[in-house]
Design brief:
This protein has 15 helices and 24 strands. It is an alpha+beta fold. The strands form five sheets. Strands 6-5-9-3-2-13-16-15 form an eight-stranded mixed β-sheet. The protein has a six-stranded mixed β-sheet with strand order 1-21-22-20-19-18, covered by helices on one side. A four-stranded antiparallel β-sheet has the order 7-8-4-12, with no helix packed on it. Helix 4 (238-255) packs parallel to helix 5, helix 8 packs across helix 10 (406-425) and helix 12 packs antiparallel against helix 13 (466-475). It has helices spanning 21-24, 152-155, 200-204, 238-255, 301-317, 328-331, 344-361, 367-381, 390-395, 406-425, 432-442, 454-462, 466-475, 483-489, 507-517, and strands at 8-10, 31-38, 46-52, 60-64, 82-88, 94-95, 97-99, 104-108, 115-121, 142-143, 148-150, 158-159, 166-172, 178-180, 184-185, 192-197, 208-211, 215-220, 223-231, 264-273, 281-286, 290-297, 492-495, 498-501. It folds into three domains: 8-12 and 213-310, Zincin-like (2-Layer Sandwich); 21-209, Immunoglobulin-like; 340-517, Neutral Protease Domain 2 (Neutral Protease, domain 2, Orthogonal Bundle). The protein is globular, with a radius of gyration of 24 Å.
Length: 519
């Protein structure tokens, strides 16, 4: 599975409460959760964790680890890796603790809680073709003396009802290990990092990789991008990768008119060497200010760069959605009993469409290359259930995991049709880029929209009542996408799964193609 030229891409909807480094600078004085762990004291792949916390108001409090995190659609039950959890009062007396379920513990006399201690086992040993007990390893953690992949949902818990409180994480470590993360690090000591986060959402939204440093910086007009890598081969690869993806990021920022919602970003890349040269696999999890990418493949820098290029393009566009534009279901995500938004067609489908659309509009791709991508997506889309609407898939992703990948196929092609339709209605002046920008201006990262109101907001904000029928048929309904009709409007003919360029265009087709892809 996923051998040769295929990779698994898990694109998360992690947002948190306006997660960013700047917001974290002001959290230290308001710290509620104060965690400590020591990477140098790893024993049997386990880390010991100490939480110092003031007493809570309740008589009985519930301390939890997530069942699931945004962007994965199978229960991970991170509490199963936690052992020996104990709670103490200020005098060191042990408080009564009862295991409520696999992820949660009930603690008596919660107003007297001073300290909680426990041990955490890693979720997987090494990233390779052996999946073990977990499928979503980019949401999990692995610990070794030389390298730590830490998804904070594995290592640190929260009290139910207190996810909006500030965190401070003290990480003692060997001095030679470097922390690649977008979390704010206020420590200046080589053997300790001190991270802050404004909430549990922000903490979970910022993975950390510890390894010997291999980094490169890409400086763009409005953003600084760090590329941090580890390769089990011992080779430094960050500079090669950064050089390869820099033109991509330049084109993407230009595509977004140099208006980006973040000013710092981190690509965290872990490469485990496959010495047998018989295939490769990757797993990526996107976050608001970073992307974690895991690879298992031979030490072929061209293959590594090719796969990272595809993931980086999609994930970087996620700074728009859901970071800048998202629903209340994402803003107030419940890690143990989540409700899902019905707008994956926007978060993933639009993001994937931007990934397709940007290269052709910036001249980085030929029309033939672009139509080849369209053909592959159309062909792959046809293998999925045609009786499942995008909104139903989005609302019930755990029940339809085998259909989830269609959001990158049908979702992207839907937005292609929507883009052309908007260009037609606006006489070329308005497309989905404008729609996303207008919706972001109205809502943005500080103001989530109501899930059931977005469609009516789209009609109102564009002024095109015709969108209501489009939405009802193709997003909320199961009517086959009008690909043949829409592509014909821009001088492309869809026949038997092939997209052909019409030789002689009408004036209207020429105008529409120019407005759509700048050609």
């Amino acid at each position: 599975m996923f051998q040769k030229s295929l990779f698994l891409l898990v694109a998360t909807l992690l947002l948190g409460c306006n997660a960013s480094k700047k917001l974290s600078r002001n959290t230290a004085e308001n710290v509620f959760y104060s965690y400590q762990t020591n990477l140098a004291q790893l024993q049997d792949d386990k880390l010991s964790v100490i939480l110092n916390i003031p007493g809570l108001e309740e008589n009985t409090a519930t301390y939890c680890f997530p069942k699931i995190v945004p962007g994965i659609y199978g229960a991970m039950d991170f509490g199963q890796y936690v052992q020996n959890l104990k709670a103490y009062d200020n005098d060191g007396n042990e408080l009564a603790v009862r295991k409520a379920d696999v992820n949660c513990w009930e603690i008596e006399r919660a107003s007297e809680i001073s300290t909680i201690t426990y041990d955490v086992d890693d979720v997987f040993e090494v990233f390779n073709f052996n999946f073990g007990n977990t499928y979503y390893r980019s949401a999990a953690s692995t610990f070794s003396d030389s390298t730590f992949i830490i998804n904070n949902n594995c290592l640190f818990g929260y009290f139910r009802g207190y996810t909006d409180k500030a965190f401070q994480i003290s990480m003692d470590k060997p001095s030679e290990l470097y922390a690649a993360t977008s979390l704010m690090n206020t420590s200046r000591r080589p053997e300790q990092d001190l991270f802050t986060a404004s909430s549990y959402h922000e903490l979970v939204d910022n993975p950390i990789m510890y390894s010997e440093p291999d980094t490169a910086i890409i400086s763009l007009p409005n953003i600084s991008v760090e590329v941090a890598c580890f390769s089990s081969s011992g080779r430094n690869i960050a500079k090669d990768i950064a050089k390869h993806i820099e033109p991509l990021l330049i084109n993407q920022t230009a595509y977004l008119n140099n208006q980006l919602p973040v000013d710092e970003y981190t690509f965290i890349i872990y490469h485990n060497l496959n010495t047998e040269q018989n295939g490769y696999m990757g797993d990526g999890l996107e976050h608001s200010n970073s992307t974690l990418i895991l690879f298992y493949m031979p030490l072929d820098i061209d293959v590594i760069k090719e796969n990272i290029y595809g993931i980086a393009s999609h994930e970087f566009f996620h700074i728009l959605m859901p970071l800048g534009l998202h629903s209340e279901e994402i803003e107030y995500y419940d890690f143990n009993q989540p409700e899902f938004s019905k707008h994956l067609w926007l978060y993933e489908g639009m993001t994937e469409y931007f990934t397709m659309h940007m290269p052709i509009t910036t001249g980085a791709q030929s029309l033939d290359e672009f139509t080849g991508i369209l053909e592959r997506k159309i062909r792959d889309m046809e293998t999925f259930n045609t009786d499942l609407s995008l909104t139903e898939l989005s609302k019930q992703p755990m029940e339809h995991q085998d259909q989830y990948y269609n959001v990158y196929l049908k979702g992207a092609l839907l937005n292609l049709c929507l883009d052309i339709r908007l260009r037609e209605l606006s006489k070329g002046s308005y497309g989905v880029q404008n729609l996303v920008a207008d919706l972001t201006e109205q809502y943005g990262k500080n103001k989530p929209f109501k899930d059931d109101q977005l469609f009516s907001e789209m009609v109102e904000i564009t002024g095109f009542n015709e969108l209501e029928s489009f939405i009802n048929h193709y997003i909320d309904g199961t009517t086959p996408l009008p690909l043949e009709e829409m592509l014909m409007k821009v001088g492309l003919r869809l026949e038997n799964g092939h997209v052909k360029t019409i030789e002689t265009l009408t004036n209207q087709q020429q105008f529409m193609r120019k407005a759509w892809i700048n050609q």
